[in-house]
Design brief:
Number of helices: 12
Strand content: 15-25%
Radius of gyration: 44 Å
Distance between the termini: 78 Å
Largest sheet: 9 strands, antiparallel
Structural class: alpha+beta
Shape: elongated
Length: 456
């Protein structure tokens, strides 16, 4: 016996060489597979109706998943954007107040290009970029050098560093000084050094127009340093603040070159200290007030104890660098050396003030704790806040109503589809599903009624 026909569809057909196969036997494996197919098909029929409801549920959940994917893709965009270099904004405008650039300005991101001698000071202040240009018009020439910093504190520090004694104050930008033909001012995060070949009567208004065209700072970068507001001005007579003598420092290099009275290691710039020094004129001599701002009052208290211990050293001219006094401190009178703390601010007086003048000056340094909200969107009035809250409530109500409507439509439509798949009408108004228990006393079953027709 040999196979007459090849096996097909799980059937083994056998027969003689001359006769067709007598019978074809289906293998057990195929039978088992078919039985499994029957079970699976029955399961498919069983779950076909519930699958329709699952499809409707997926349609409901799909719109909710789309915003999540969109949010994830949007959050990934800034990461990719951060890898790309940011676009640079020109520091100097092409023209202003009748002045026009004669050629493209020189631009650089290196502090050594702006000032090779004081490049380390510029790094401490957060130097960002530099630009220099020549402007011309019919009446003369104007040279402008501009430096931008990461925040307003760095710009103010650079402005006070380059400001020299003998300059006159000007009302340009957020602070300006003039020595005749040379005007220095700062606005936002930019410091501008303007040099005229000869000054006209309108130079101040022209530079004010230039200050409005400089790149604007936003957010926390635009916040001015708060330390200058604690300089005593009133109630210190006969002591008076000398104009344009303040020096704001963010690092040891700028502090030392600005004539700081304390050693930089004692100040603690590595702990986030900011220093403001100012010269005060007394009845007979001048003195210096140093204000050091620390991140926390606890750190300020620790530094106060260290400064007081340093000022009590009996040998100002010691040879060891750890106890050697800087020259401004060594030239001070002993009665003028005072130290006091108010909150996170440590105040130190030095110079040649009398003891009474030094006590009166340092006693006027009082820290005022306040909370400042730096909102990049600016100030929001109470009326504006109330309007935003009401609009948010209306928007939330509309979203909830829309969600309830969508869920109702999908649930009602799903129920109708489920009934249609079961072969029932879509509506349940014509369904007779009332169940009667027939609990009355004279009730007779139907079979008994046929046997006894007289029974009602």
């Amino acid at each position: 016996m040999r196979a007459w026909l090849p096996a097909f569809a799980g059937w083994d057909c056998t027969g003689s060489a001359s006769a067709p196969p007598a019978k074809c036997i289906q293998s057990k494996r195929v039978k088992a597979a078919k039985s499994e197919q029957v079970v699976v098909s029955s399961k498919i029929r069983m779950h076909r109706r519930t699958g329709a409801l699952a499809a409707l549920s997926a349609l409901v959940l799909l719109p909710a998943s789309i915003p999540l994917a969109t949010a994830q893709s949007t959050t990934a965009k800034p990461v990719a954007a951060a890898a790309r270099p940011a676009k640079t904004t020109a520091l100097l405008p092409g023209d202003f107040a009748g002045w026009t650039l004669s050629h493209p300005p020189q631009q650089s991101a290196s502090p050594a290009t702006a000032d090779q001698t004081n490049a380390d000071v510029l790094r401490e202040d957060g130097f960002a970029s530099f630009a220099a240009g020549e402007y011309t018009r019919d009446t003369g020439k104007l040279s402008i050098r501009a430096m931008s910093f990461v925040d307003a504190s760095g710009a103010y520090a650079a402005y006070t560093f380059y400001r020299r004694p003998g300059m006159r104050p000007e009302e340009i930008g957020q602070g300006a000084a003039n020595d005749g033909q040379h005007i220095l001012f700062w606005q936002g995060t930019t410091v501008v050094d303007a040099t005229f070949d000869h000054l006209s009567a309108t130079y101040a208004s022209e530079l004010r127009e230039l200050s409005q065209l400089l790149p604007a700072a936003a957010g926390s970068a635009a916040v001015e340093p708060t330390l200058p507001r604690y300089l005593p001005v009133n109630g210190i007579a006969p002591v008076a603040l000398a104009p344009l003598t303040t020096r704001y420092s963010l690092g040891p290099a700028g502090y030392v070159r600005s004539g700081g009275a304390l050693p930089p290691s004692l100040v603690g710039f590595e702990r986030g200290a900011e220093v403001l020094t100012a010269i005060y004129s007394g009845r007979d001599n001048d003195g210096t007030l140093t204000l050091i701002n620390y991140p926390t009052p606890q750190l300020a208290a620790e530094r106060q104890r260290a400064i007081e211990a340093f000022l009590k050293t009996s040998n100002p001219g010691a040879a060891t660098p750890a106890t050697a006094w800087p020259q401004p401190l060594a030239d001070s009178s002993p009665q003028a050396l005072l130290c006091r703390r108010s909150g996170p601010i440590v105040a130190v007086t030095s110079g040649l003030l009398t003891e009474v003048e030094a006590h009166k000056l340092i006693g006027q340094v009082n820290y005022l704790a306040e909370v400042t909200w730096n909102d990049p969107k600016g100030y929001n009035s109470e009326i504006s806040k109330t309007g935003h809250i009401l609009l948010s409530i209306v928007a939330l109500s509309a979203m909830l109503c829309g969600a309830a409507l969508v869920v109702g439509v999908f649930l009602g439509g799903g129920r109708a589809l489920y009934r249609r798949l079961r072969g029932k009408p879509v509506s349940t108004l014509n369904d007779v599903e009332f169940i009667s228990l027939r609990l009355e006393d004279d009730y007779v079953p139907p079979e008994s009624r046929q046997a006894s027709p007289h029974v009602k």
